[in-house]
Amino acid sequence: MNTRHFSAPASLCNLGAAVPFSSNSASGEDRIAASAGNRHPRAPPSFLIRTATRISRARWFSFLRRVFHYQNGSRSDLGSNPFNSSSWMLLEFIALVIQISIITFTLSMSNKEKPVWPMRTWIVGYDIGCALSLLILYGRYRQIYVTQGDAFGLPAMEQQRSSEESRTSLLMNKCRTSLELFFAIWFVMGNVWVFDSRFGSFPGAPKLHVLCITLLSWNALCYSFPFLLFLFLCCCVPLISSLLGYNMNMGSTERGASDDQILRLPSWRYKQADVNLELGNDVESNSKPANDDPECCICLAKYKDKEEVRQLPCSHMFHQKCVDHWLKIISCCPLCKQELER
């Protein structure tokens, strides 16, 4: 008994070969299945690669990586504290000034409100904590930048100055630790007072209630920053990198090549018959082969007929997609490490 087994074209694509049929239309279906099986997987859109490249080369992304390395790296290789940079201190100053201004304005507009819980006391205590944070921030800035700028003095005074600086830094660290402990306790008390289901403070004091919720949300976001940073750099970034085929953690402005530099490099379609190169971007057709090795050293796959390849200034040849992704990470040849001309 003869039994015919019919399968969907999708299964033929997965197998990469056609199953012979006894019907007359089998040859046409075989050709369709074979051509579909020989297709390469669809590459991600170019604008996604450009977006990932810009994000990996942005200053805020480099800063987040520095913060993560400083918080989770070994003590022997921590480097400088990223939170002591002038840009971060400026952001802290702006955030504290905005909080103090909003709190002062809301307190002046809510004199007639009568909350059930002592929300006004909590807001005033939070405002005092922000003012003390401003003073500590000024002390940090003066200690890091002003003191270092005035460090050129007499040799006899260097030992006394270093001892005074150590005492000041120790006192500054104690003040910062005490203030952080105060904000942590104050945060817990504010959550208990605001979100108590038995006594609703919103009808009697809507402005103070909304202000307390806003301040508590901001503090919750600040306290969850290490977890969000871990989730972003250890989960989101590797997932995006694997989907796009571009390592975002390796991208940098100094080492990666620009799109214009990559497009200026010659490229053509590989001809497997006699290893002659059909040039496509104004390259002379009588040039000799640039690479005697018939496989790409990046993906370790052999060159196929009519595949797009690219040649570097050092005469080494690679797959165009492979070497383009490589050059966006580091602008040198994978084999001889010769840098591209800038």
From TrEMBL:
Sorted UniProt keywords: Membrane, Metal-binding, Transmembrane, Transmembrane helix, Zinc, Zinc-finger
Name of this chain's protein: Zf-RING_2 domain-containing protein
Transmembrane segments: 88-107, 119-138, 177-195, 215-240
Pfam families registered for this protein in UniProt: zf-RING_2
InterPro entries: Znf_RING, Znf_RING/FYVE/PHD
PANTHER family xref list: C3H4 TYPE ZINC FINGER PROTEIN, RING_U-BOX SUPERFAMILY PROTEIN
Residues annotated as domain RING-type: 296-337
An MF annotation (GO) of this entry: zinc ion binding
Record has Zinc as a keyword: yes
